[in-house]
Amino acid sequence: MRVRVLVLTGFGINCDYETAFAFKKAGAAAERIHLNDILETPRMLDDYHIFVVPGGFSFGDDIASGKILANRLRYRLGIELTAFVESGKLVLGVCNGFQVLTKMGMLPRTKGRLEQETTLVWNDSGRFEDRWVSLRVAAQTACVWLQGLDRLELPVRHGEGKFIARDATVMEDMERRGMIALKYVTRDGEPARGKYPDNPNGSINDIAGICDPSGRIFGLMPHPEGHIVRTQHPRWTRDLSVDPSSDGIGLEIFRNAVRYVEQNL
User: Fold this and answer.
1) 175 is a catalytic site residue
2) Which SS3 state, helix, strand or coil, does residue 131 take?
3) Are 233 and 152 in contact (CB under 8 A)?
4) Which residue ranges make up each domain of the chain?
5) Exactly one of 15, 18, 143, 223 is catalytic; which is it?
6) CA dist., res. 236 & res. 13, Å (int)
7) I need a surface site. Which of 21, 53, 82, 128 has the fewest CB within 10 A?
8) Parallel, antiparallel or unpaired: strands 129-137 and 151-158
9) Among 225, 227, 233, 252, the one annotated catalytic
10) What tens digit of pLDDT does each residue of 153-171 get?
């Protein structure tokens, strides 16, 4: 079976080509599909195993980053996307896509329905952050996209990346159920403890990514498609013992998703 991936595009999304390429490099058949085409023919979702909302600036980040796209997906495709998830399939949101998934209620989905419980707001620095960050996979996470991974280095580029929860109950529920997926750490792997720039946006508990209770819906602010070959990393020339054509760590996230579909769907 060939794993099929639908990568959303249109209206300011601008990381669709890189994301589709990453999935293809991981062995999947990835297609970029315009939002209008999906809204016109929602049944096309049945033909895919993975649905992806890539990074970018959907609808110019008017109102708030990802809010307009989130509303379109929730109110015009919510039933179909809920059925998509409940059939055991996977969803990924990167950067602007993460903002979209939280604001439409697809993440964290603690109650199994589309209800906004978290969001991403302006960085504490008050500016757009474009830098590489160190990350650690959270202990006992349920996220299937991160299986076998521990430490990663990926780029971030966002103005509204500070993760917050609606209240302490939501945060406690996420911690207890393994829904915290990825955290910012120092380059040495120690907790960032909110310190800038290790935590580039001030996210509560250094959270860089979360998943739903099943582990199949994953959202993160860093860009895994930005490190799928070693030469994308700014320090790649300093370790001459490593083949420059080798894969970047971000590719493992896409491989995990493809592997999961092959084994479970």
Assistant:
1) no
2) strand
3) no
4) 4-264
5) 223
6) 28
7) 128
8) antiparallel
9) 225
10) 999 999 999 999 999 999 9
15 catalytically annotated: no
Closest C-alpha to 69, from 84, 81, 86: 81
CA distance 225 to 10: 18
Task: Indicate the DSSP class of residue 245.
Answer: T
CATH superfamily membership of 4-264 = Class I glutamine amidotransferase (GATase) domain (3.40.50.880)
Indicate if 211 belongs to the active site: no
Q: Is 0.85 topped by the overall pTM? A: yes
Q: Which of 15, 95, 143, 211 is catalytic?
A: 95
Q: What is the token pair recorded at 147?
A: 């299986």
Is the distance from CB of 205 to CB of 180 less than 8 angstroms? yes
**Band (238; pLDDT cuts 50, 70, 90):** confident
Evaluate whether 14 touches 55 at the Cβ level (below 8 Å): yes
| CA-to-CA dists, residue 208 to 31, 95, 130, 135, 184, angstroms | 27, 10, 15, 8, 6
